[in-house]
Amino acid sequence: MTVDQLITLLIGLFGGGVAAAIVTTFANRKKINAEANKITSEAKKIIAEAEATAEKLRAEARKADAEAAITLVQSYETRIEKLTVRVTSQDDRIIELEKQVRDLRALLCDRETQVAALQKENDELRLEVDKLSKLVNNKDRRIRELEKQVGELTARLDAICGNADGKVEE
């Protein structure tokens, strides 16, 4: 069967409209396939371009990530360097303050020893003052006793000598 016979048969069976559509479909099949191939080829080209663009964007993103990481590392290194200087300065200050504390403790120990020695000396001096006060009191009492005895002896001597006005006769 030839194409013309097939077309005639289809027109007879389905009528003119349907047969024309079928015939048009068969006739345009190569054209449709060519357009489909062209569209497929363009789609593949667009996909390849999209993949290339995506790879380019990924490379740029990796580059941006690397630059950001470098910037962060530099920032952290600067900060660490500043903190290291600060820690070193604080360590030096701590050493200086610890030395001052040791010196002050030694001075305090010396002062406490001096205070203890002065308290001991003060206690000894108090005892000596008390002893001397007792001695002075005893001497004062002895002087009063002796003055009383002198007064009594003078009166006796006056009585013995017969002089009532207290003058001694020669």
Explain what the structure shows.
- The chain has two helices and no strands.
- It has 170 residues and is mainly α.
- It has one domain (3-161).
- It is rod-shaped and about 205 Å long.
- The N and C termini lie far apart (206 Å).
- The model has no long low-confidence stretch (mean pLDDT 85).
Structure at a glance:
With 170 residues, this protein is mostly helical. It has helices spanning 3-14, 16-161.
For the largest beta-sheet, the strand count, sense and barrel status come to: none
Q: Label the structural class.
A: mainly alpha
Cα-based radius of gyration, to the nearest Å: 67 Å
> How much of the sequence is in beta strands?
under 5%
Order of helices and strands: HH
Total number of distinct structural domains: 1
- The count of helical stretches stands at 2
Helix content: over 70%
Strands, total number = 0
* Mean pLDDT score: 85
Distance N to C terminus: 206 Å
User: Residue ranges: pLDDT <50 for 5 or more in a row?
Assistant: none
What is the general shape?
A: rod-shaped
Keywords:
170 residues, rod-shaped
Question: Helices and strands in order, then pairings?
Answer:
Blueprint: H1 3-14, H2 16-161
Helix pairs in contact: 1-2
